[in-house]
Amino acid sequence: MKTNYKKPDEWKVRAKKHLGQHFLKDLNIAQLIADGLSGHSGYKQVLEIGPGMGVLTQFLLPKTEFTTSVIEIDRESVAYLHAHFPLLSERIIEGDFLKFNPADHFSEPFAIIGNFPYNISSQIFFRALEIRDRIPEIVCMLQKEVAQRIASPPGNKDYGILSVFLQAFYDIDYLVTVPPGAFNPPPKVQSGVIRLRRNQVTHLDCDEKKFFTVVKTGFNQRRKTLRNALKPIGTFPEHPLLDKRAEQLSVSDFVELTKIAETLSNDPISS
């Protein structure tokens, strides 16, 4: 399919601050994000979150190996998409991804892609984790600091709660840094593009709810050793991991501590 890619001739949709909108205008970056889709695990469906005026969408539609749908909460953007992408009309979902029920629209696994609004990017990932077995791949652009945090390995100062949660179920690559000038209006920060591919972990070897609690509690006082940081959970028996700080632990280390936490008689998360 031959397509003449272009920016909108006029910025007819006003960027809304409360929606965290910064419309991508750099076509090279749009192409890079679209090409980040690998078809990991053989999915055929793609959902773009927050397409705005379709600068990224126009690079997705020619990829005939996938069927692209979009979800957009901004009514003005929805109207623009209907007017400029008539072939996409039946696959334009007007709504909030955070309240999105995939069963209403997809009967099989689907990838997520998009230029995520900075103000809700973490919430998007937490929602994706809830339905992770339906999402084999995510390619997205978000604030650079958040992108780096998600992709950072243990031992890095950027490594944090979201890093552990996502790395438990996805393999993550940081692809490229994007300057503010690639957007209209330009944000005050740099952006980063990352790709997450679902790994082979179907379930953690511990109680998942307790795992989340242990990770959050450990990072709440990340300057302290875990022996002190995890006191709100209970009194742990001596263990080498307790001499480390949360940022030094891998996913498997946190699983090990969670299994110990499950045995504590004074563990408040067991009650």
UniProtKB/TrEMBL annotation:
Keywords: Cytoplasm, Methyltransferase, RNA-binding, rRNA processing, S-adenosyl-L-methionine, Transferase. It comes from the Bacteria. Its main location: cytoplasm. Pfam families: RrnaAD. The keyword Transmembrane does not apply. Its EC number is 2.1.1.182. It is found in: Cytoplasm. S-adenosyl-L-methionine binds at H22, L24, G50, E72, D96, N115. Residues 29-200 form the Ribosomal RNA adenine methylase transferase N-terminal domain. NCBIfam families: ksgA. Specifically dimethylates two adjacent adenosines (A1518 and A1519) in the loop of a conserved hairpin near the 3'-end of 16S rRNA in the 30S particle. May play a critical role in biogenesis of 30S subunits. This is Ribosomal RNA small subunit methyltransferase A. It comes from Dyadobacter linearis.
